[in-house]
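Human: My hope is that you can spare some time for a protein that puzzles me. I am handing you a single protein, as its sequence and its fold in C-alpha coordinate form. Could you go through the record with me and say what the backbone is doing? Take your time, and here it is.
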Amino acid sequence: MPSDNLEINETIAAQFAQLVLDCIGREYPNSNLYWADSDEDIKPPRELTPAFYGCLDWHSAVHGHWLLVRLMRHFPEASFYAASKQALDQSLTPEKIQGEIAHFQRLPFYEFPYGVAWLLQLAAELHEWNHPQAKQWRVVLEPLEKLIAGNLHRWIEALKLPNRTGMHSQTAFALGLMLDWARITENAEFIQLVENKARQFYLSDRNYSLQFEPLGYDFLSPGLAEADLMRRVLPTTAFADWLTDFLPQIPIDNSANWLQSPGVDNPKDYMQAHFYGLNLSRAWMLEGIISGLANSDRRRETLRSAALHHRQHGLADIVSEHYAASHWVGTFAVYLLTNRGLQGQTI
Protein backbone atom coordinates (compact mmCIF):
# COMPACT_ATOMS: atom_id res chain seq x y z
CA MET A 1 0.00 0.00 0.00
CA PRO A 2 1.62 3.29 -1.04
CA SER A 3 2.46 5.53 1.88
CA ASP A 4 0.75 8.53 0.25
CA ASN A 5 -2.63 6.74 0.28
CA LEU A 6 -3.70 7.19 3.87
CA GLU A 7 -7.40 6.42 3.56
CA ILE A 8 -9.27 3.22 2.85
CA ASN A 9 -11.34 2.40 -0.20
CA GLU A 10 -12.76 -0.81 -1.65
CA THR A 11 -9.57 -1.65 -3.54
CA ILE A 12 -7.40 -1.30 -0.46
CA ALA A 13 -9.97 -3.08 1.70
CA ALA A 14 -9.88 -6.01 -0.74
CA GLN A 15 -6.12 -6.32 -0.26
CA PHE A 16 -6.50 -6.50 3.50
CA ALA A 17 -9.39 -8.95 3.27
CA GLN A 18 -7.33 -11.20 1.01
CA LEU A 19 -4.53 -11.34 3.56
CA VAL A 20 -6.96 -12.92 6.00
CA LEU A 21 -8.67 -15.13 3.43
CA ASP A 22 -5.23 -16.51 2.55
CA CYS A 23 -4.49 -17.54 6.14
CA ILE A 24 -7.77 -18.11 7.96
CA GLY A 25 -7.73 -21.80 7.06
CA ARG A 26 -3.96 -22.18 6.97
CA GLU A 27 -3.07 -24.31 9.96
CA TYR A 28 0.72 -24.31 9.62
CA PRO A 29 3.10 -22.79 10.47
CA ASN A 30 1.54 -22.49 13.91
CA SER A 31 2.69 -20.83 17.13
CA ASN A 32 0.79 -21.73 20.27
CA LEU A 33 1.86 -21.07 23.85
CA TYR A 34 -0.28 -22.69 26.52
CA TRP A 35 -0.17 -24.97 29.53
CA ALA A 36 -0.71 -28.68 28.87
CA ASP A 37 -2.02 -30.87 31.68
CA SER A 38 -2.56 -34.06 29.70
CA ASP A 39 -2.55 -35.63 26.25
CA GLU A 40 -5.99 -34.08 25.79
CA ASP A 41 -4.27 -30.71 25.44
CA ILE A 42 -1.84 -31.91 22.76
CA LYS A 43 -3.74 -31.89 19.49
CA PRO A 44 -3.47 -30.27 16.06
CA PRO A 45 -4.62 -26.63 16.16
CA ARG A 46 -7.78 -27.38 14.15
CA GLU A 47 -8.87 -29.79 16.91
CA LEU A 48 -7.85 -27.68 19.90
CA THR A 49 -9.55 -24.49 18.68
CA PRO A 50 -11.69 -25.45 15.68
CA ALA A 51 -13.07 -21.97 14.94
CA PHE A 52 -9.84 -19.99 15.28
CA TYR A 53 -6.79 -22.01 14.30
CA GLY A 54 -5.31 -20.36 11.17
CA CYS A 55 -3.13 -17.29 10.68
CA LEU A 56 -0.24 -18.68 12.78
CA ASP A 57 -1.89 -18.29 16.20
CA TRP A 58 -5.26 -18.04 17.92
CA HIS A 59 -5.30 -14.29 18.44
CA SER A 60 -4.41 -13.55 14.81
CA ALA A 61 -7.17 -15.89 13.67
CA VAL A 62 -9.63 -14.10 15.94
CA HIS A 63 -8.77 -10.60 14.83
CA GLY A 64 -8.64 -11.82 11.24
CA HIS A 65 -12.32 -12.73 11.63
CA TRP A 66 -12.88 -9.27 13.11
CA LEU A 67 -11.22 -7.70 10.06
CA LEU A 68 -13.55 -9.55 7.67
CA VAL A 69 -16.64 -8.49 9.60
CA ARG A 70 -15.44 -4.89 9.85
CA LEU A 71 -14.78 -4.63 6.13
CA MET A 72 -18.00 -6.40 5.17
CA ARG A 73 -19.92 -3.82 7.21
CA HIS A 74 -18.29 -0.93 5.42
CA PHE A 75 -18.13 -2.42 1.91
CA PRO A 76 -21.28 -4.54 1.49
CA GLU A 77 -21.01 -4.54 -2.31
CA ALA A 78 -17.31 -5.38 -2.43
CA SER A 79 -15.86 -8.22 -4.46
CA PHE A 80 -14.48 -9.85 -1.33
CA TYR A 81 -17.86 -9.92 0.46
CA ALA A 82 -18.96 -13.38 -0.72
CA ALA A 83 -15.64 -15.07 0.08
CA SER A 84 -15.56 -13.38 3.49
CA LYS A 85 -19.08 -14.52 4.26
CA GLN A 86 -18.19 -18.07 3.27
CA ALA A 87 -15.13 -18.04 5.53
CA LEU A 88 -17.14 -16.73 8.47
CA ASP A 89 -19.91 -19.27 7.84
CA GLN A 90 -17.33 -22.03 8.00
CA SER A 91 -15.80 -20.79 11.25
CA LEU A 92 -18.76 -19.49 13.23
CA THR A 93 -20.82 -22.66 13.61
CA PRO A 94 -22.35 -23.92 16.88
CA GLU A 95 -20.20 -27.05 16.73
CA LYS A 96 -16.93 -25.19 16.30
CA ILE A 97 -17.74 -22.62 18.95
CA GLN A 98 -18.53 -25.48 21.31
CA GLY A 99 -15.04 -26.76 20.57
CA GLU A 100 -13.66 -23.35 21.55
CA ILE A 101 -15.71 -23.41 24.74
CA ALA A 102 -14.35 -26.85 25.62
CA HIS A 103 -10.82 -25.50 25.15
CA PHE A 104 -11.48 -22.53 27.47
CA GLN A 105 -13.08 -24.79 30.03
CA ARG A 106 -9.78 -26.70 30.21
CA LEU A 107 -7.63 -23.55 29.95
CA PRO A 108 -9.77 -20.68 31.29
CA PHE A 109 -7.07 -18.01 30.92
CA TYR A 110 -5.86 -19.00 27.47
CA GLU A 111 -4.71 -16.01 25.35
CA PHE A 112 -5.26 -13.56 28.22
CA PRO A 113 -5.47 -10.64 27.81
CA TYR A 114 -4.63 -9.84 24.18
CA GLY A 115 -6.38 -12.61 22.27
CA VAL A 116 -9.57 -12.57 24.32
CA ALA A 117 -9.76 -8.77 24.05
CA TRP A 118 -9.93 -9.24 20.28
CA LEU A 119 -12.61 -11.90 20.72
CA LEU A 120 -14.71 -9.30 22.52
CA GLN A 121 -14.03 -6.85 19.69
CA LEU A 122 -15.35 -9.44 17.24
CA ALA A 123 -18.48 -9.77 19.35
CA ALA A 124 -18.83 -5.98 19.52
CA GLU A 125 -18.51 -5.66 15.75
CA LEU A 126 -21.28 -8.21 15.22
CA HIS A 127 -23.38 -6.54 17.92
CA GLU A 128 -23.24 -3.18 16.13
CA TRP A 129 -23.92 -4.53 12.65
CA ASN A 130 -27.64 -4.50 11.95
CA HIS A 131 -27.65 -7.31 9.41
CA PRO A 132 -29.47 -10.67 9.57
CA GLN A 133 -26.31 -12.70 8.98
CA ALA A 134 -24.41 -10.74 11.61
CA LYS A 135 -27.17 -11.44 14.11
CA GLN A 136 -26.88 -15.17 13.39
CA TRP A 137 -23.13 -15.14 13.87
CA ARG A 138 -23.61 -13.10 17.05
CA VAL A 139 -25.94 -15.73 18.48
CA VAL A 140 -23.45 -18.48 17.64
CA LEU A 141 -20.53 -16.61 19.22
CA GLU A 142 -22.38 -15.45 22.32
CA PRO A 143 -21.79 -18.52 24.55
CA LEU A 144 -18.03 -18.21 24.03
CA GLU A 145 -18.20 -14.45 24.58
CA LYS A 146 -20.04 -14.94 27.88
CA LEU A 147 -17.60 -17.59 29.08
CA ILE A 148 -14.59 -15.42 28.28
CA ALA A 149 -16.18 -12.30 29.78
CA GLY A 150 -16.82 -14.19 33.01
CA ASN A 151 -13.25 -15.47 33.11
CA LEU A 152 -11.98 -11.97 32.40
CA HIS A 153 -14.06 -10.48 35.18
CA ARG A 154 -12.37 -12.76 37.70
CA TRP A 155 -8.97 -12.20 36.13
CA ILE A 156 -9.24 -8.39 36.22
CA GLU A 157 -10.54 -8.36 39.78
CA ALA A 158 -7.57 -10.43 40.93
CA LEU A 159 -4.96 -8.49 38.93
CA LYS A 160 -2.56 -6.74 41.30
CA LEU A 161 -0.14 -5.05 38.91
CA PRO A 162 -0.30 -4.00 35.24
CA ASN A 163 1.93 -5.47 32.57
CA ARG A 164 3.82 -2.55 31.04
CA THR A 165 5.54 -4.31 28.13
CA GLY A 166 4.77 -3.70 24.46
CA MET A 167 3.61 -7.15 23.45
CA HIS A 168 0.67 -9.51 24.00
CA SER A 169 0.66 -9.40 27.79
CA GLN A 170 0.29 -5.62 28.02
CA THR A 171 -2.61 -4.64 30.25
CA ALA A 172 -3.51 -1.14 29.03
CA PHE A 173 -4.22 -1.97 25.39
CA ALA A 174 -6.35 -4.98 26.27
CA LEU A 175 -8.34 -3.01 28.84
CA GLY A 176 -9.06 -0.39 26.17
CA LEU A 177 -10.51 -2.98 23.79
CA MET A 178 -12.48 -4.56 26.63
CA LEU A 179 -13.88 -1.20 27.73
CA ASP A 180 -15.04 -0.42 24.19
CA TRP A 181 -16.77 -3.81 24.02
CA ALA A 182 -18.45 -3.26 27.38
CA ARG A 183 -19.77 0.14 26.32
CA ILE A 184 -20.99 -1.12 22.96
CA THR A 185 -22.83 -4.03 24.60
CA GLU A 186 -23.97 -1.85 27.53
CA ASN A 187 -22.39 -4.06 30.17
CA ALA A 188 -22.43 -1.59 33.07
CA GLU A 189 -20.76 -3.91 35.58
CA PHE A 190 -17.84 -4.62 33.27
CA ILE A 191 -17.48 -0.92 32.43
CA GLN A 192 -17.15 -0.10 36.12
CA LEU A 193 -14.69 -2.93 36.65
CA VAL A 194 -12.34 -1.77 33.88
CA GLU A 195 -12.58 1.91 34.73
CA ASN A 196 -11.78 1.22 38.38
CA LYS A 197 -8.83 -0.99 37.47
CA ALA A 198 -7.49 1.62 35.03
CA ARG A 199 -7.59 4.28 37.74
CA GLN A 200 -5.97 1.92 40.23
CA PHE A 201 -3.11 1.10 37.87
CA TYR A 202 -2.45 4.35 36.03
CA LEU A 203 -4.01 7.42 37.63
CA SER A 204 -0.93 8.30 39.68
CA ASP A 205 1.64 7.64 36.93
CA ARG A 206 4.06 10.48 36.28
CA ASN A 207 6.98 11.38 33.99
CA TYR A 208 6.92 8.42 31.62
CA SER A 209 9.86 8.45 29.19
CA LEU A 210 9.04 7.53 25.60
CA GLN A 211 12.76 7.56 24.75
CA PHE A 212 13.08 4.00 26.05
CA GLU A 213 10.56 2.69 23.52
CA PRO A 214 10.39 0.39 21.71
CA LEU A 215 11.30 -2.19 24.31
CA GLY A 216 12.74 -4.89 22.10
CA TYR A 217 10.35 -5.84 19.31
CA ASP A 218 7.18 -4.18 20.55
CA PHE A 219 4.06 -3.91 18.43
CA LEU A 220 2.33 -1.75 21.06
CA SER A 221 3.61 1.35 22.84
CA PRO A 222 3.37 0.90 26.62
CA GLY A 223 3.19 4.65 27.21
CA LEU A 224 0.79 5.63 24.43
CA ALA A 225 -1.46 2.64 25.10
CA GLU A 226 -1.80 3.77 28.70
CA ALA A 227 -2.69 7.30 27.61
CA ASP A 228 -5.14 5.94 25.03
CA LEU A 229 -6.84 3.96 27.78
CA MET A 230 -7.02 6.87 30.20
CA ARG A 231 -8.63 9.19 27.62
CA ARG A 232 -11.45 6.63 27.58
CA VAL A 233 -11.77 6.81 31.36
CA LEU A 234 -11.21 10.45 32.37
CA PRO A 235 -13.22 13.58 31.52
CA THR A 236 -11.52 16.02 29.14
CA THR A 237 -10.05 18.41 31.71
CA ALA A 238 -8.92 15.64 34.04
CA PHE A 239 -7.34 13.76 31.13
CA ALA A 240 -5.47 16.88 29.95
CA ASP A 241 -4.03 17.36 33.43
CA TRP A 242 -3.14 13.68 33.75
CA LEU A 243 -1.41 13.74 30.34
CA THR A 244 0.65 16.76 31.39
CA ASP A 245 1.94 14.83 34.37
CA PHE A 246 2.37 11.54 32.53
CA LEU A 247 4.00 12.75 29.28
CA PRO A 248 5.44 16.19 30.09
CA GLN A 249 7.85 15.92 27.14
CA ILE A 250 5.15 16.36 24.47
CA PRO A 251 6.24 19.54 22.63
CA ILE A 252 3.92 22.23 21.27
CA ASP A 253 5.96 23.11 18.16
CA ASN A 254 4.03 20.88 15.73
CA SER A 255 7.06 18.61 15.38
CA ALA A 256 6.96 14.90 14.63
CA ASN A 257 10.60 14.28 15.55
CA TRP A 258 9.98 13.77 19.26
CA LEU A 259 8.67 10.26 18.54
CA GLN A 260 10.68 8.41 15.92
CA SER A 261 9.09 5.56 13.98
CA PRO A 262 11.10 2.31 13.79
CA GLY A 263 11.83 0.72 10.42
CA VAL A 264 11.72 -2.89 9.23
CA ASP A 265 14.95 -4.00 7.57
CA ASN A 266 14.09 -7.69 7.31
CA PRO A 267 10.37 -8.27 6.63
CA LYS A 268 10.89 -12.04 6.90
CA ASP A 269 11.81 -11.70 10.58
CA TYR A 270 8.68 -12.43 12.63
CA MET A 271 9.84 -10.28 15.53
CA GLN A 272 11.12 -7.33 13.51
CA ALA A 273 7.85 -7.34 11.57
CA HIS A 274 6.25 -6.22 14.84
CA PHE A 275 7.44 -2.71 13.98
CA TYR A 276 4.85 -2.53 11.18
CA GLY A 277 2.22 -2.91 13.85
CA LEU A 278 3.96 -0.55 16.27
CA ASN A 279 3.82 2.31 13.78
CA LEU A 280 0.14 1.62 13.08
CA SER A 281 -0.88 1.23 16.72
CA ARG A 282 1.06 4.35 17.70
CA ALA A 283 -0.84 6.24 15.01
CA TRP A 284 -4.26 5.23 16.30
CA MET A 285 -3.24 5.73 19.93
CA LEU A 286 -2.04 9.25 19.16
CA GLU A 287 -5.34 9.95 17.41
CA GLY A 288 -7.14 8.56 20.43
CA ILE A 289 -5.20 10.85 22.74
CA ILE A 290 -6.08 13.82 20.53
CA SER A 291 -9.77 12.90 20.74
CA GLY A 292 -9.56 13.14 24.53
CA LEU A 293 -8.22 16.69 24.52
CA ALA A 294 -10.06 19.98 24.12
CA ASN A 295 -9.80 21.69 20.72
CA SER A 296 -7.83 24.49 22.36
CA ASP A 297 -5.12 22.19 23.72
CA ARG A 298 -1.78 23.31 22.25
CA ARG A 299 -0.47 19.73 22.09
CA ARG A 300 -3.03 18.58 19.53
CA GLU A 301 -1.13 19.64 16.41
CA THR A 302 2.11 18.09 17.63
CA LEU A 303 0.28 14.86 18.38
CA ARG A 304 -1.40 15.04 14.97
CA SER A 305 1.93 15.43 13.19
CA ALA A 306 3.34 12.41 14.99
CA ALA A 307 0.20 10.40 14.21
CA LEU A 308 0.47 11.24 10.51
CA HIS A 309 4.18 10.38 10.50
CA HIS A 310 3.51 6.96 12.01
CA ARG A 311 0.52 6.37 9.76
CA GLN A 312 2.67 7.01 6.69
CA HIS A 313 5.45 4.71 7.86
CA GLY A 314 3.07 2.02 9.03
CA LEU A 315 1.11 1.89 5.79
CA ALA A 316 4.15 1.83 3.50
CA ASP A 317 4.44 -1.62 1.90
CA ILE A 318 1.91 -2.95 4.39
CA VAL A 319 0.61 -5.68 2.08
CA SER A 320 3.68 -7.86 2.47
CA GLU A 321 4.29 -11.14 0.70
CA HIS A 322 5.98 -12.44 3.84
CA TYR A 323 3.88 -14.38 6.33
CA ALA A 324 5.69 -12.73 9.23
CA ALA A 325 3.54 -9.64 8.65
CA SER A 326 0.77 -10.76 6.29
CA HIS A 327 -0.87 -13.08 8.83
CA TRP A 328 -1.75 -10.23 11.22
CA VAL A 329 -0.78 -6.69 10.34
CA GLY A 330 -3.79 -6.03 8.08
CA THR A 331 -5.90 -5.98 11.23
CA PHE A 332 -3.86 -3.10 12.64
CA ALA A 333 -4.18 -1.20 9.37
CA VAL A 334 -7.96 -1.66 9.26
CA TYR A 335 -8.33 -0.72 12.93
CA LEU A 336 -6.46 2.51 12.17
CA LEU A 337 -8.03 3.36 8.82
CA THR A 338 -11.60 2.77 10.00
CA ASN A 339 -11.13 4.72 13.24
CA ARG A 340 -12.30 1.74 15.30
CA GLY A 341 -10.92 3.07 18.56
CA LEU A 342 -12.58 6.47 18.21
CA GLN A 343 -16.10 6.33 19.58
CA GLY A 344 -18.76 7.74 17.29
CA GLN A 345 -16.46 7.99 14.28
CA THR A 346 -16.51 5.82 11.17
CA ILE A 347 -14.92 5.87 7.73
